[in-house]
């Protein structure tokens, strides 16, 4: 084991450095006093000598405490080296402690492994003996099984036994369920018997109470005996009908009384003879017969009205269907007229031309800053609408060379867009050949900007031109060098920005 380190010399070195600094400060004070006060030179020299002696004593004490090999000017470096050695010693002590711990753990692990190996060997021997014993038992059981099964396959006997066991379990479960049902029915019967006994006792109690009430009611009634009441008992079933007859008789009596009172008021004290009464009755009968005939006629008229209404609705529905069929027939005739010959094809071509013209007019307006627009005249040709001149329409032949190129470019781009929309396979490349040399710089910049936007949106645009401005604006260029007479052939070079 390493020897523990002694007390650190750092505080002593710091104190010594402090004392050295104090001594030097005093020397500087003495030198300053000697320079300014020459008269005190002796005293200063004496003081300087004292200071030197003190310094020598301090150095002697330093050497006595720390050794002559350690100088004050090398104390800091020695102190740093000592700190490094102490750190290395601490690290070595830590490693040594960890090594000792690891060695002890390794030894314990080794002992544990040896113990486990011995136990595993013992367990293996025990298992080997147990396996031998189990094999012997298995052979014995196989012999017993062969004797029991009389040579038949055990799995068939097991399946047969399992089927029989399943049947027995099913029967047992059925018997248990029936037994439980019987127990529940028995319990319910017992409960019903108890309830019936209770009901019987309650009924007997109510019978006695009813008998007492019957005797008291009979005494209070006008009947002399129960036989009279029993004789009237069959009429109880007709009690409701009898009550209805009584109520109906009373109602008829009230109505007759009211009618008699009304007749008395109408007659005003007059009297009718028998002949007048019979004549009035005959007239009433005739009026009632006439009223019945009127009611029958009104009912027949209502039935005829309903029939007419249903027929009118049917007629309106058929008329609406006929009108719809007539309109459909007219449209079909119109379509037949349209599809006759090339009229329909010409119509579709005209509509397609209008669509292309609109798209080209929009692009031309962008290229010319909304000065020009394209339109289709009645003959299917193109005309220019000069919006800068108040919408004046003039032939395309009046355009300059650059304006004609812009119009052609707009039409080509619009037509390519229509092909892109209508075609089965998309158009992915578009070539423009020359025509840029007739444009001024501002218009050329506008055209190039439009081509760049078109390139970024849908398809790639290729330009064939000798204009230098185009070469500066295009990101990728194919430079074609023509062939030399009696020399090499033409060359193609790719340039990218």
Automatic annotation (TrEMBL):
Gene3D superfamilies: P-loop containing nucleotide triphosphate hydrolases
Molecular-function GO term, any one: exonuclease activity
Chain coiled-coil ranges: 298-338
Biased composition (Pro residues): 1-10
Coiled coil listed as a keyword: yes
Keywords: Coiled coil, Exonuclease, Hydrolase, Nuclease
Location of the region described as Disordered in the Swiss-Prot/TrEMBL record: 1-20, 133-219
Assembly notes: Heterodimer of SbcC and SbcD.
UniProt family annotation: Belongs to the SMC family. SbcC subfamily.
Name this protein carries in UniProt: Nuclease SbcCD subunit C
Source organism: Paenibacillus artemisiicola
